[in-house]
Amino acid sequence: MLMDSDMKLILNLLTRRSMPLLLMIAMATLMPFTAIAKRERPVLDNNVSLPHSILRLPNVHPGREELYNYAMNLLSEALDATASEYGTYELLVKERELSQSRQLRGLEHGFLDVTWTMTSKERERQYLPVRVPIMAGLLGKRALLVKENDDRLKNVADKQALKAFRVVQGYDWPDTKIFRASDIEVLETTYHASFRIVTEGFADIFPRSVIEVGEELSNAHLTAGLKVDEHIIISYPSPIFFFVKSDNATLATRLSKGLLILFETGRFQVLLNDYKGYKESMALVNSRKVIEIENPLLSEESKKALDRFLPELYSRQ
Predict the structure, then answer these.
(1) Is 20's pLDDT higher than 50?
(2) Is-same-fold flag (28-135+239-274; 138-235)?
(3) Tens of pLDDT along 142-164?
(4) 256-265: per-residue pLDDT in tens?
(5) How far is CA 224 from its chain centroid?
(6) Are 179 and 140 in contact (CB under 8 A)?
(7) Virtual CA dihedral for 251, 266, 121, 17, nearest 10 degrees?
(8) Please, what is the average pLDDT of the chain?
(9) Which top CATH class is 28-135+239-274?
(10) CATH 3.40.50.450 fits 138-235, yes or no
């Protein structure tokens, strides 16, 4: 039988070991949200109200506002398209930005309900993906940020030649593992520090999605001293999916149904074409040599999603 002193010792040990996690969860839970969208509850003919959902979302990283707004519009319209079956909703956005890994952890710890990010086998094991590529696969088309006076990439003809260059990527990004799988040296750091790492010569290239780089370049402070290389695009299959908590099959099914409705009615393609970054992305890809590398992190199910949706998306442009 445990004595009171033994119980106190055990509780102290448990508290010390779990305190960092508990503190993180508590802080995240208490972080303020801003309401950005709300719809009135529809009422069925039998006067039974459908549920009203409050969905908590991550905030935008500075320099990605247009891309964020496109994703938010797509999410809102997918929810609108399914309101008659699932009820209405309210979207709440955290006031502070979070890294990719913290956004995903937020799903499991209960302080986020939806996020969108690049997929991987590991992420799909831990969280529930909605396998509709919301950015038309363009996340894996990488324009290359280099120093303003650096034209060395004009001599690069293939993947082998890329191995002479050092790449910088985020420490919690799947892209880091993708480049390393092709034997390309990668320096890991934070998103904001990555720009400065290239400017100061610690890395040669900061690969940026073609759907992100134009907006980032408009931020003169963020990209000071950098330019987009005029010669090369690095390409690998890499869809962005909406993700929800692993046990939230109802929300995942709702989002999947909504996105399919938008896709089948052509509304998905309209939103994509209206997004300024889409046209800029296609121009970047079509004006440069494309070097393909493998993505060993992509699941078979996600490959099938790309094969299913991308040909149809591009055929309707």
Answers:
(1) no
(2) yes
(3) 999 999 999 999 999 999 999 99
(4) 999 999 999 9
(5) 24
(6) no
(7) -40
(8) 85
(9) alpha beta
(10) no
